[in-house]
Design goal:
single chain, 362 residues, alpha/beta, Rossmann fold, DNA polymerase, domain 1, 3 domains, six-stranded mixed sheet, two-stranded parallel ribbon, 15 helices, 46% helix
Length: 362
Amino acid sequence: MTYSHRYSILRQLEEMKPTVIILYNTDIATLRHIEMYKACHSELFLHIYSLMYRESTEESRYLTTLKNETDAFTTLFNEKATLMIPRRYETGREEVDRLQMPTGNDGAQAPSRCERPKIIVDVREFNSELPTVLYKKGYDVVAVTLEVADYVLSPAIAVERKALDDLAQSLQSGRVFKQSEQMLRHYTNSILLIESNRKFESKIVNGGPFQGELSRHCREVRALLCSLLRSTPKLKLIWSLSPANSAEYFAELKLNRPEPDADHAVSLKSDEVTSVKEVGDLEADTRTSSDKPRKPNAILLRHMGQHLPGMSRGDVQSMMLSQKVRNLCDLFTMPIEQLYTAVESHADRLSLFANFDFSVSD
């Protein structure tokens, strides 16, 4: 169809404004122009009739043209799905809700601050969607390298985020036990955020170890989660359905709270031995005759870190790897001088704990 013919059809339709159109020769291009005219004049009651013989060559030609049109659109959609096109991101941000406390006797409210509230985020968390969601919610995301917690909402609130697929691995390796102990040591309100996501639904069979699975692996994961909650009763647990749901929890937790200090959050260190000298000494001490490193028992390490007075998990690990103490019997029976060389500043509390007289009452 030529351009003149195309515009001629549109011009005639605009001039005549028909309510009934009968097509003796059904042409797909003409039919589409009539549909465009009807879409532009929705107030008109337009009836279209097409005349053709059933199972005729004319009908076959029309159906073939219709199929070619459908195939063309399908090919176009497939090509568009694989094209390298620039992606546009929505940079609009919402306003964060704030509590305005009344000041003065007249009940006037203090004006809201211009600066946005901030949340300190570990740089490794930017592989997830939650920092982006928090930014769109109106929070200033401060990216730093944190050794304790993943998110710091206020000087007293810290959050460790675990996805469902990562939670089971962290429970089995014992990493989440250590992370929880570190948060509880430095923050008054420590939260373990367990976050789900739609992209994990196809990977997890029957919801994973927390929704109906009865295999041995799932029972072990559930038992470890119960052990975590029993060993750290002050740890708060939050289940989240999505990053958007997590952002809503963060908004409620941060409401009317003081802003966190990034320098203080970065200064908090974990219990791992990280200095070069200490690592070298530990590697030298843990070499056996076969030149293989000796690794302490993770379960024993966790229990001793929880129950020995004044000693953290890192202190217990250093003591076990130093080979100055072979077992608990040596630890509780050695003289105070040797105890100072083994555990240094914790010697007094351990000596008092080991030699406490039960017959003495307060």
